[in-house]
Every structure is written in C-alpha cells, then in structure tokens.
C-alpha cells in the first residue's frame, strides 16, 4: 500500500478529473488524502479519499467568501490581461500558504507521491523542497511547449515545417520575453520567498520530471516530435454515472427521431446571453430538439420573449445520461465536457475565448470533430450555419465517432493508477516505452 497526497485548484474543472483517479487508488488498497476547497468535500469523501481542508491556503471554491476587490479588479480586465490576472491571483499567489498547509499535512501523512493538477503549483514546489516524487494530471489540453506548436493560449494549430518551427520559435520568444515576462518574474519572486531557484519558463511549460498524465487520447492532441518521455496519454477522466438521476418529464422526446442539439456553458462562464440564448434563437424554427442546460443557474436568467417549442431547458442534466442521445453539442469549450462528448461520438460546435477555451476549440477544429466559431458570443446565424453544416456532412460525425472508438479502448483510472503505483515503488521518472507510437 502506498500513500498519495492529491492537491487541486479548488474549481470544478480541476477537481472532477481527479475523482476517478482517487477512487481507483482507494479501490486498489492505497491511502489517499486530498487537499482542496471545502465545497468539494462530499465528492472527495465519496471516492473513499480523506478530505483535507485549505486552512492557510486561499479557498476560491466559495466565491461568496472571497474578497470582493478580487472580482471587481478582475471584471475591469479583458482577454489576455484577465488571463494573466487569473494566473497570478488564483494560482501563483496562493502557493506559499498552500505549501505551509502541505508541510503540516506531511507531518501527519508522510506521502509516497504527491499528485497535483497541472495548474496547482504547491505540490511541485514542495516536491522540490523535500525531494518527494510528484506527478501531475491534466485539466486541459497539453500546454507544454514544443518546437512543433505555437505557445499555449493563442489557439494556433501546429506547424512542424521549417517555416512553422520559425513561427513557433518567434511566438515562444515573444510570449516568454514580452507578454508573460511579468508573470514569470512574479512567479520567481514567490519562488525566491520560499527558497526555490528561479526559472525562465511560465509554469505550464515546466511539468513534473517524474510523471504527467494527459487526460485524452493521442488523436485529439497535437503531435510533438519532442514530447517529454514522462508524458503518458491515459484517456479522458470521464464522469461516472450519478446514482440519483431522475429523468425530466420530457425525456421520451429524445426518442422522437429528430436530431438532438445540446447547448451548455458549463458552470463558470455561465451568462446565458453568450451562447444559450443565441442557440435557442438560431434553432427555434429548425426541425431539431434543443436541450439547454444552465450549469445550475436559474432558468429565469434566460431572457426571451418566447421560449421555442422545440427547446427543453434544465439547470443541469448529467452528461453521462444525456450525451448518448445527442447528435451535436454546442459548448464554450470546457475541456472535460468536450472529452465527454467525444467519448460518446458527439460532434461539436465550440464558441469560447476565455481561459483555455481557444486552445480546446482549435483542437476541435484541427481533429475534424467539429467547428470552432472562435468567439465567445456567436451570432444566431453563425450557430445555425454550423449546426446545418455538421448535420449535412458525414465528415464531422465520422471523426467524432473515430475518436470515441479510440477512447473506448482506454481505461483512464486504471492507466493512471498503474503509472502512479510504479512511481510510488521506484521513486524514479516513469517514462514511455521507446516503442510508443506517440
């Protein structure tokens, strides 16, 4: 039996991917403690892991208890400036206090391996301080830099030609030396305060040297000739079947033979005017069934003069139950939702511009599984055109089904647990086989 200490950014998209990993480790007889926000305690304890609260660390899972000044300042920023603010405020700045919590935890729970989501820095920094092996799991697309890809965040597709390498080198230089220089300097100031050496890369370019678990299949990720050998594609970390799901009264409408279009904005960027309202307007007179979910927000937030008769609107429906009936999912590009759609062979229309969403949308387009609208607020006409194009084309459905078939051959929790067990046993980097096809 080994001891694993998991640490995650206290947000849904960072916690949910680790749930099946924790559950599998517990099933295999290991002891798992998990440090994150209080909001997620019930989910974590349901896996059999021991929940550990953020005592000194910033618990951003409870928005209402956060200083209003943080959100007021954030709302004044847009685009790349807001992206940098989020990195500094919610990922870098809390690291010192999170490390203090980790030191306290490790006194009671001397972990064999630290496991963190790829944006949770405390695990890696404590590993540097105490020479503990640590692993990371992805919560989004593979962000690590490569000669074959443009820098993470730009939403550019890969180019491995000589001209492409020149483009990538120039863009990486501009990002590291100009656009993100202040973030790198800020990171190094925080690192220096805890006795760690500086480095010249943004943190998502500096992955664990021991083990990195990428939660998808190779066909959805850009190929890299210089992929670090500790990166393993383990398949997506899919949500499990909820035990308390009660289908809504209209559930049999899914069997009426019409194309089913699902629109969702996730749980964070949930303003219905961005995507839900224009989708309802776009498809109001089409011979389709539209299923809209608000991410838990009140349905009354959807302001329409008249609700379309072909629409069904709910605060939340588990994707485990809904997606097997869906033909197209319209989404702002949340990574976990996209992986869940692809696992069900569902084609995609993506419309997102914040956080990692441009990168997710770019991969949807590059892999051929859907259409990237490259905007956060698409016009109804653009949505209608994209839906009609996918419904009339075999290409998108075939590509989505192909990746779905590939995903079906991966057991992500078991793959992840097996690799983590190897790390716990050997305390050495877990590298891909030289014969690996990726």
Task: List strands and helices in order, with pairings.
Blueprint: E1 3-7, H1 12-15, H2 19-27, E2 31-35, H3 41-46, E3 50-52, H4 68-75, H5 79-92, H6 95-108, E4 113-117, H7 121-130, E5 134-137, H8 162-179, H9 181-193, E6 211-214, E7 231-233, E8 260-264, H10 276-282, E9 289-293, E10 311-314, H11 319-322, E11 328-331, H12 335-343, E12 347-350, H13 357-367, E13 370-372, H14 380-391, H15 394-407, H16 412-426
Parallel strand pairs: 1-2, 1-4, 2-3, 4-5, 5-6, 6-7, 8-9, 8-11, 9-10, 11-12, 12-13
Description:
The chain is built from 16 helices and 13 strands. It has helices at 12-15, 19-27, 41-46, 68-75, 79-92, 95-108, 121-130, 162-179, 181-193, 276-282, 319-322, 335-343, 357-367, 380-391, 394-407, 412-426; strands at residues 3-7, 31-35, 50-52, 113-117, 134-137, 211-214, 231-233, 260-264, 289-293, 311-314, 328-331, 347-350, 370-372. The mean pLDDT is 90. Helix content is 38%, strand content 12%. The longest helix has 18 residues, at 162-179. The chain is an alpha/beta fold and 438 residues long. It has two domains: 3-235 and 410-426, Rossmann fold; 251-407, Glycogen Phosphorylase B (Rossmann fold), CATH 3.40.50. Helix 7 links the parallel strand 4 and strand 5 (134-137). The strands form two sheets. It has a seven-stranded parallel beta sheet, with helices on both faces. Strands 10-9-8-11-12-13 form a six-stranded parallel beta sheet, with helices on both faces. The protein starts with a strand and ends in a 12-residue tail after the last helix. The radius of gyration is 22 Å and the shape is globular.
């Amino acid at each position: 039996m080994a001891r694993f200490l998991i640490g995650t950014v206290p947000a849904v998209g960072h916690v949910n991917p680790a749930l099946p990993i924790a559950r599998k480790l517990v099933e295999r007889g290991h002891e798992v403690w998990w440090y994150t926000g209080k909001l997620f305690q019930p989910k974590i304890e349901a896996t059999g892991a021991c929940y550990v609260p953020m005592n000194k660390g910033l618990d951003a899972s409870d928005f209402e208890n956060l200083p209003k000044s943080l959100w007021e300042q954030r709302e004044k920023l847009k685009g790349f400036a807001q992206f940098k603010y989020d990195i500094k405020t919610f990922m870098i700045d809390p690291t010192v206090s999170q490390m203090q919590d980790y030191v306290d935890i490790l006194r009671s729970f001397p972990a064999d391996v630290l496991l963190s989501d790829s944006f949770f820095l405390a695990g890696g920094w404590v590993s540097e301080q105490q020479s503990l092996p640590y692993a990371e799991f992805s919560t989004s697309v593979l962000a690590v830099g490569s000669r074959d890809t443009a820098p993470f965040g730009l939403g550019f597709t890969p180019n491995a030609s000589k001209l492409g390498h020149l483009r990538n080198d120039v863009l990486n230089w501009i990002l590291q030396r100009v656009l993100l220089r202040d973030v790198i300097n800020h990171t190094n100031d925080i690192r220096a305060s805890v006795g760690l050496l500086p480095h010249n890369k943004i943190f998502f370019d500096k992955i664990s040297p021991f083990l990195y678990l990428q939660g998808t299949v190779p066909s959805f990720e850009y190929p890299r000739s210089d992929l670090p050998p500790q990166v393993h594609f383990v398949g997506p970390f899919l949500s499990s079947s909820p035990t308390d799901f009660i289908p809504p009264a209209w559930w049999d409408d899914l069997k009426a033979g019409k194309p089913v279009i699902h629109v969702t904005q996730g749980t964070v960027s949930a303003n219905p005017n961005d995507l839900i309202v224009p989708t309802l307007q776009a498809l109001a007179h089409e011979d389709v069934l539209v299923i809209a979910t608000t991410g838990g927000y009140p349905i009354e937030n959807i302001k329409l003069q008249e609700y379309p008769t072909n629409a069904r609107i709910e605060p939340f429906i588990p994707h485990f139950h809904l997606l097997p009936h869906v033909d197209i999912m319209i989404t702002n590009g949340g990574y976990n939702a996209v992986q869940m759609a692809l696992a069900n062979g569902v084609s995609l229309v993506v419309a997102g511009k914040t956080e990692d969403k441009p990168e997710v949308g770019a991969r949807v387009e590059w892999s051929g599984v859907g259409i990237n609208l490259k905007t956060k607020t698409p016009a109804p006409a653009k949505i209608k055109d994209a839906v009609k194009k996918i419904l009339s084309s075999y290409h998108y459905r075939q590509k989505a089904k192909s990746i779905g078939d590939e995903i079906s051959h991966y057991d992500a929790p078991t793959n992840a647990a097996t690799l983590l067990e190897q790390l716990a046993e050997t305390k050495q980097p877990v590298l891909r086989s030289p014969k690996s096809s990726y």
